[in-house]
Amino acid sequence: MLAASAVLTACKLSLVISSPANHSVSTSTQVTLTFSLTGNMEKATFSCQLDDQTPVPCESGKVYEGLEYGRHRLVVSAGADGDRTQQDVYFHVVNTQVPLKIVQPLDGQTVQDSPSWGVIVGIPFSLVSATGVYTLCQYDAAPAERCDYTIIGADASYQYIRLFHDFASGPHSVSVSAWHDTTQFSSDSVRFFIDDL
Predict the structure, then answer these.
(1) Tens of pLDDT along 9-41?
(2) pTM to 2 decimal places
(3) Which CATH class is domain 13-93?
């Protein structure tokens, strides 16, 4: 019995999806699905499912094209001799054609400092909803850091945020960028002058 149990354990299938990486972010609307299987490879059959589509027979290296912007899920199933296994990954396709933009103040504008004033940034929704995407803010010559903000509204394409920062009177510059890991997707910057009259 011990020998039979060891044989059954050795025949278990183990499936690994190597691409796309789980929770990865891509600017391409095309993705190549690659996976590997350990176990009974000769008799194994595979099926792949994108989002809510019907699963279809597939092999490693299958290419998905024309993906919509947003979050996606890929499920790979493998079976051989009654043994089955399944793995899935989530990934996100972002639209860099809709750029992050600073909408207030305008570049070169002089503004009056007040409690209601602040730097307002529009973040495209494909970046807002992407797992692991974050924004960095750089004020004047200070090092860039994670933005401190509040959400103030949205329209069809953008979510708008107001940055929290204390500005003294005089000239200033602000740069805002959207990142995932070490990849920068979009950025914008302005120079403006604060008049505290």
Answers:
(1) 344 778 999 999 999 999 999 999 999 988 766
(2) 0.75
(3) mainly beta
pLDDT the model gives residue 149: 94
Q: Tell me the C-alpha distance between 126 and 70, whole Å.
A: 6
Instruction: Give the separation between CA 123 and CA 37, rounded to whole angstroms.
Output: 40
Single-letter amino acid, residue 97: Q
Return the C-alpha torsion angle 38, 51, 130, 18, nearest 10.
10
Please name which of 129, 137, 134, 191 lies closest in space to residue 163, comparing C-alpha atoms. 137
Q: Which CATH code of 3.40.50.10190, 2.60.40.420, 3.30.460.80, 2.60.40.10 fits the domain covering 101-195? A: 2.60.40.10
Supply φ then ψ for residue 3, to 5 degrees.
-65, -45
